[in-house]
Design a protein that fits this description.
The strands form 5 sheets. A 6-stranded mixed β-sheet has the order 13-18-17-16-14-15, with helices on one face. It folds into 2 domains: 4-377, Glycoside hydrolase, family 3, N-terminal domain (TIM Barrel, Alpha-Beta Barrel), CATH 3.20.20.300; 389-563, Rossmann fold (3-Layer(aba) Sandwich), CATH 3.40.50.1700. The protein has helices at 30-46, 49-54, 67-80, 92-105, 133-137, 143-159, 189-204, 236-241, 245-250, 280-290, 305-308, 315-323, 334-346, 352-368, 382-385, 389-402, 431-437, 477-489, 522-532, and strands at 4-6, 9-13, 16-20, 23-25, 57-61, 84-87, 111-114, 163-164, 211-215, 257-260, 296-299, 328-329, 404-408, 420-425, 441-444, 457-463, 491-497, 513-516. By secondary structure, it is α/β, with parallel strands linked by helices.
């Protein structure tokens, strides 16, 4: 099949045509479009009503919850004839074998999705981790984001995945956001748009569907929607300027899917406490009719507490479909959901043409993703294929380009092989960074800082836990005290191996040099050490508003030694 991209083209249905944003081959001919639609019409006609309704559902496949869980999914695939799966934790080889089996059992090949925002590592621990979106937001050359998502697409193909539920386009204006945070490209709308477009194109140019999320905008929330229903209380002017702006800008860029959030937005939905994901005003009225979006519309996971705690399985699915969603993700009640949707059709609450619209949209997308047929994947060597030197080189380059130098008043960088001291603070590992810095570094513990000679150059590393993208960052009072004491006598290079939000309540006025590395892992630490030693250029920009003094867009360029 020709290389595919997602474009806004005219689909010719026999002699008539309609504007569509379905996923299509580049420069597709009228004849090819006819073949695609003939396959869709033929397949749709061959399905029973029960099979048609099954296409609307995606359920979760875990391999770390035992054989009973897998058997349950197997029965749903066979009996409820669902449209797809979302792969969860944790064994790649086992997942490939099961996907091969389930595809063989399915009359229409399954759409296989995954939350792979920072690569399949998000679900497969043996894979290589790519940077979080916040890190990517600091990168000025957005083509590097494209290269990363193209590599993620390669990994997805290797796993048999067709749809990466990414990127997040929420504008993270709340530093304490408990669910978005590092998953956002930042607090500036234009940076979010350009970063997300590069990410989406890297996927879709390589035949993996993207999904921008979480509509209508999850960037200013205080509640984790996995647990309860967040409220976004901004007025329409603010929503249009910030929360909705990336979605509006990307609507006509051919991005394959939009994921609907479990949020209550009173300015968009008059019904008290109604989540966006089941709001007809938001899904149909705003996204489909006002914004004119014609791609696949999918709910956020229906097992999340924001909705699962308030509605019964099945009932929730039917409400989501009535609202205008094409696909119910992570359904907890496929059989009952199908019955309730059919009951609504019989009662005239939902038209059969609405079912036809969604199912044909799903089928056409599957066709252009190559899912008119299915070729089994080989699980052999999967772990090494998902984690090798090609990943390492790319990822370290991304971290290198994200590094953001906020100040360097005493021109302490690059180190130029001079002797420096290193003090590690906070809870996470640091040894890779210390080793990569070289032999001129003397490591001191926090309780040994008084042994450091006055006026020395001291690197202070704030090494934050890197195990989750969700956790808001806060530096301990004890670390702040050590930093303050050091700044009285020493020349400090403060290196934040964590979100820039870590600097929110730290006084850096007496600190010469501040560098943000965004994450604490081996790739980030190696890239940072190389930059401090002058091997690579530093030219990232702060992607978020941290406080009144540290604003989005800040950053200083520092050439590598070889460039000088």
């Amino acid at each position: 099949m020709k290389k595919l991209i997602y474009t806004s083209l005219f689909i010719f249905l026999f002699l008539s045509s309609k504007i569509s944003a379905q996923y299509q081959p580049k420069n597709i001919s009228t004849e090819d479009l006819k073949k695609a639609n003939l396959w869709v019409d033929k397949t749709y006609s061959s399905l029973s009503q029960d099979e048609k309704l099954g296409q609307l559902f995606i359920v979760a496949l875990y391999t770390n919850k035992g054989e009973n869980e897998i058997s349950t999914v197997r029965n749903i695939v066979v009996n409820d004839k669902i449209g797809g799966l979302i792969l969860m934790q944790d064994d790649a080889s086992r997942e490939i074998n099961l996907v091969n089996e389930f595809q063989q059992k399915s009359k229409v090949p399954l759409m296989i999705g995954m939350d792979a925002e920072w690569g399949v590592f998000q679900r497969i621990a043996t894979a290589h981790k790519y940077p979080w979106a916040m890190t990517l937001g600091a990168i000025q050359d957005k083509n590097l984001i494209y290269q990363m998502s193209a590599k993620i697409a390669e990994d997805c193909h290797r796993m048999g995945i067709n749809w990466d539920f990414a990127p997040v386009v929420d504008v993270n204006t709340n530093p304490s956001n408990p669910i978005i945070g590092n998953r956002s490209f930042g607090s500036e709308v234009n940076n979010v748009i350009s970063s997300a477009l590069s990410y989406s194109n890297g996927l879709q140019d390589n035949n993996i569907l993207a999904a921008i999320k979480h509509f209508p905008g999850h960037g200013d929330t205080n509640t984790d929607s996995h647990l309860d229903l967040p409220v976004v209380s901004h007025d329409l002017e603010r929503l249009n300027t910030i929360e909705l702006a990336p979605f509006k800008a990307l609507m006509d860029k051919g991005i394959g899917g939009v994921m609907i959030a479990h949020l209550y937005v009173p300015a968009l939905e008059s019904g008290k406490g109604i989540p966006a994901s089941i709001s007809k005003n938001i899904v149909t009225g705003l996204l489909k009719e006002k914004f004119g979006y014609k791609g696949l519309i999918i709910t956020d996971a229906l097992n999340m507490g924001a909705v699962a705690n308030k509605y019964n399985p099945g009932e929730l699915d039917a409400m989501a479909f009535k609202a205008g969603n094409d696909i119910m993700l992570f359904s907890q009640g496929v059989a009952s959901g199908k019955k309730l949707i059919q009951k609504a059709i019989d009662n005239g609450e939902i038209s059969q043409s609405r079912v036809e619209e969604s199912v044909k949209k799903i089928l056409l997308t599957k066709y252009f993703l190559g899912l008119d047929t299915y070729t089994p994947k080989n699980p052999e060597n999967i772990n090494s294929d998902l984690n090798n030197d090609s990943h390492k080189v790319l990822v370290q380059n991304l971290y290198s380009n994200a590094l953001t130098l906020l100040k360097d008043e005493k021109k302490l960088l690059p180190l130029n092989n001079k002797q420096v001291y290193y003090v590690s603070l906070e809870e996470a590992p640091y040894q890779t960074f210390a080793d990569q810095l070289g032999s001129n570094v003397i490591i001191k513990k926090a309780n040994e800082i008084n042994t450091i000679p006055k006026h020395s150059t001291v690197i202070v590393g704030l090494h934050k836990d890197n195990s989750t993208a969700y956790k808001p960052y806060k530096i301990s009072d004890s670390s702040k005290k050590v930093l303050k004491d050091l700044a009285k006598k020493q020349n400090i290079i403060l290196n934040v191996f964590g979100s820039a939000y870590a600097l929110k309540d730290i006084d850096i006025s007496k600190i010469s040099t501040v560098l943000v590395s965004y994450e604490n892992n081996d790739d980030s630490m190696r890239a940072t050490a190389d930059a401090l030693n002058g091997k690579t250029k530093i030219w990232g920009r702060l992607p978020v508003l941290v406080n009144d003094k540290l604003k989005a867009g800040m950053g200083i360029d520092l050439d590598s030694i070889t460039a000088k």
